[in-house]
Amino acid sequence: xxxxxxxxxxxxxxxxxxxxxxxxxxxxxxxxxxxxxxxxxxxxxxxxxxxxxxxxxxxxxxxxxxxxxxxxxxxxxxxxxxxxxxxxxxxxxxxxxxxxxxxxxxxxxxxxxxxxxxxxxxxxxxxxxxxxxxxxxxxxxxxxxxxxxxxxxxxxxxxxxxxxxxxxxxxxxxxxxxxxxxxxxxxxxxxxxxxxxxxxxxxxxxxxxxxxxxxxxxxxxxxxxxxxxxxxxxxxxxxxxxxxxxxxxxxxxxxxxxxxxxxxxxxxxxxxxxxxxxxxxxxxxxxxxxxxxxxxxxxxxxxxxxxxxxxxxxxxxxxxxxxxxxxxxxxxxxxxxxxxxxxxxxxxxxxxxxxxxxxxxxxxxxxxxxxxxxxxxxxxxxxxxxxxxxxxxxxxxxxxxxxxxxxxxxxxxxxxxxxxxxxxxxxxxxxxxxxxxxxxxxxxxxxxxxxxxxxxxxxxxxxxxxxxxxxxxxxxxxxxxxxxxxxxxxxxxxxxxxxxxxxxxxxxxxxxxxxxxxxxxxxxxxxxxxxxxxxxxxxxxxxxxxxxxxxxxxxxxxxxxxxxxxxxxxxxxxxxxxxxxxxxxxxxxxxxxxxxxxxxxxxxxxxxxxxxxxxxxxxxxxxxxxxxxxxxxxxxxxxxxxxxxxxxxxxxxxxxxxxxxxxxxxxxxxxxxxxxxxxxxxxxxxxxxxxxxxxxxxxxxxxxxxxxxxxxxxxxxxxxxxxxxxxxxxxxxxx
Length: 735
Ligand code: NAD
Hints:
lipid metabolism, 2-enoyl-CoA Hydratase, Chain A, domain 1, lyase, binds nicotinamide-adenine-dinucleotide, 3-hydroxyacyl-CoA dehydrogenase NAD-binding domain-containing protein, globular, 11% strand, 735 residues, alpha/beta, Rossmann fold
């Protein structure tokens, strides 16, 4: 037995410490499941075994669930699945889920009491394993959590979780937990009734043994004659109501975009009417059905595999030694600069935060202090740690203190001359190897690099607001930026625990370039006379976090007006005005700046509460469509999604972005692009390039050239290529 360290103690308790071979985290590989089956067999047949304790031998957690890499990587195909079958991978995953249920059930019915000593993080299949144990003791360690987060990658719990959790805590609580993918901290898990005891980390095994020796019941709750589902099952009037309301609520919240949530609902509803063994089969059937959906395939690829790859710096040129950062200088202590100083100091790096005068620099530092106070008050950090982070930040107007910095991040006002000036001042203090990164959102990096004496060390490091929350950072290559500089910039972004994507130097780079058309399409619709409520409703129904007009309010209307006028200036005679842009400019002139001053497309009550549409919108464009039938709503949704996707395709054609994984991950982390699609490029691939081009041609005819497919898409459609097929798996090599 290689994946569990097994020891029979003097009381006849078989202590099994999980330790997956070759993995940093415990996961259920095929071999590990075989070992667990052997444990269940031994418990059943060996008279010397009085009870079983399952715990983890690894210091970083209990179990992260099924091994997705193995599950989808073909390890299960050997089980009689034809490798040439295009669905082989997914059938392998089905086989894995089936086996997981069989093994967990064998443990649950081995006839001896089984207790879980959960000494660390237990997620997905890890939580499902302990639900199949008769007793659960959880460590109170600071990093310990439990939960069933499968919906976040387009799946639902398929290792018995969808059947055991509702039987344990009731259908309503279980459905909420599983459909949100909620994680429970130790106290929450105890309060929810998911575990029996929470004890100090070094006491979990003892407490589990104590239960076996004193009470040690070897029969699962749901295998007892007198068992009743808490809160009533679906056949019980109260239970039936839970399902009716739950169904309506889940469909409303997810707009039907997530088949996993709908299938979860079916599995729980049908499963609760059956004995557990049949219920587990119902679960496996719905689980397999979910796996076969394009949404699950795309979400697993992007939100699991690509997120990991990009999050580890897949865009980093290979062969450049890793850079350690001892000091970073941040120029400009405004909204962005202060946030950048905060996240940098949070990762243990010394920061010199520079502004025009001491007061402005101090203001930036006090913003960091506010963020730290909030973290302390929420119990996320100790006071000592917070003070330590704050002490790493030196706020000053003195450019001389930049000396010794490995990196400068510039975040002064968006002005080319000003940026040139501070570049010169900073470079006078910097070593030849130091990197200079600009956080500009609109000025070309190659233009800014002209002010630098070392343009090969000059790069764009584009953060999103608010910096402490947004995970994405765009790294922008200038014409002369070297690979060594790119590698250093990526090392910095990884060090501060953000996700870097590498983009080339075109107007608005990648994220804003694709996002702006979403808001512009909302303006087109407004000018066509479509009611703002419809525009924002269909916007949310696409899976975007907010509709286009609400989103404009959030970004700030004055900023959008500024961007529009600068775009017009840059494009000169080629600029095509967006209908509605003059009206937005008028709103700004009248003091409607968006959410930040409580007045935009919507009025935001000062006391909080729901926003209400500003009545003036209908004076600007009288409403001609105040209701949309399902077909009309579908078409509006298409416009909002396809205008972004066609822009992303143009970015590939122009080489603005080169790796579909980075485009997908960037779209979800950067502007909340519909996660069900797996990202902006996965959306096109799942529609199919030929169908997408045909639709774009149709839409160009109806709405104009902004929908026109680029030549690249036509070529791909003619050859039947996908983006992942054509551009997949690029590794950037150092020159
Ligand atoms: P801001 O106005 O809040 O801050 C700019 C700061 O620069 C001010 O504190 C100002 O005093 C300081 N400054 C001006 N001249 C200086 C000098 N000579 N030396 C040092 N400091 C000086 O602006 P912001 O929103 O933080 O934006 C800063 C940069 O980040 C801009 O280039 C902007 O385009 C970019 N950006 C902004 C956002 C956003 O959402 N606001 C997002 C990404 C990038």
